[in-house]
Design brief:
Structural class: mainly alpha
Shape: elongated
Number of helices: 3
Length: about 80
């Protein structure tokens, strides 16, 4: 798929161009790599948010544990 980016700030262009040169990639390859990396990060965040929701639901389903302070005090007295 081809896309066109308009009004790309010079600082962004220079940074991506510099990184492409340092990594021995073309500008196009570096842009694709950057977009792929960002897409993976977005998917990872979605999965983490889903997992966090599942964890929160699981934690809410567990009955609270009793206070352990009395047990610790009793054990120290022994």
């Amino acid at each position: 798929m081809d896309i066109t980016v308009k009004r790309l700030p010079d600082t962004v262009y220079r940074a991506i161009k510099r990184e492409a040169q340092e990594q021995g990639r073309s500008l196009n390859a570096e842009i694709i790599r950057s977009l792929e990396e960002r897409a993976l990060e977005l998917e990872r965040r979605k999965r983490l948010a889903k997992m966090r929701g599942e964890l929160d639901r699981f934690a809410a389903s567990i009955a609270p544990l009793p206070d352990s302070a009395p047990l610790i005090r009793a054990d120290r007295r022994r």
